[in-house]
């Protein structure tokens, strides 16, 4: 059942829209079959999104724990947001597990990527919790940037398999809705810090996350392309064109990435809920039982 959670913005000082609603859409996708090259019959978009999806089950579990670790003492508004955020992310994890299973059915070694994510997250154990939250905040900005681009630019999924496109659009809608939660949790957790320390740690972490994100996703995607018989400069050039030329998701999100470094930045500086409105009503309540 789709469960809207209306946020009472009178209880906290956040730039989030006064009428912000976070809706938990309990949807199911990809329980049947999909084409091997589901992204317009083309390997580069398919491999990029397969590699991205392979990171989500463990990655979103990490996001959930990082945010929950700092919910103590949160005001009622933020506490509501965190609960809705967790419920949305749990559903995203479930659906990407199902999608990853289909990629494996086509012969892709998705588990190798998942294993590398597990190894990386194991390295984070024992470090200060606020660093996990800072990483989550940066990565949530990435998901929100890509979500806005995917919904706003039909070129990304225009010729994709309809079932897969529906999953990515559903995920994108909810990423936009909760894009301020990790950021507001960070502001709550670091409320006793100086503005300079908060700004410095936030931005340093974004630079570190950016370097890791593109290095690892590039390597993961090339590995999947190799499994598809595409190697060497053909693989690298094709992937680079996909990311920077057409449809060019990396090129197109660069201004939004740069905005993160602005003093006083908040994810809701730009209200892009109109993109959600374009897709509302397309998601029917799922009838399948949870797995």
From TrEMBL:
It holds the Pfam family Metal_hydrol. InterPro entries: UCP07580. Keywords: Hydrolase. GO terms for molecular function: hydrolase activity. The keyword Hydrolase applies. This is Metal-dependent hydrolase. It comes from Qipengyuania polymorpha.
